[in-house]
Amino acid sequence: MEHDGQLELYAAVAVRLKEAHTTVRALQVPEGVRVALTRKLLVITAAAKHDLAGAARRLDRFTADLDAGRYPEEDGCADRNGPSPLRHKGD
Description:
By secondary structure, the chain is mainly α. It contains 3 helices and no strands. The termini are far apart.
């Protein structure tokens, strides 16, 4: 029985993550803010693989912040003049 509850929670979190991604894409915010929000969603997605209940709580806080209009500041890596933080040190 517990396994069924876990599957239901996975399904619910997956649906909510998809909805959150759709909401973020539709926001009229600077691209840097959108990047920061998307990164937060990716972190929550990765956390769900190891701590589903914790990821669900983080997603609750994330969506509450979105609903309240609380967005992060623009992500500093959106600066096209600086080095990309995604590059390997040897690149």
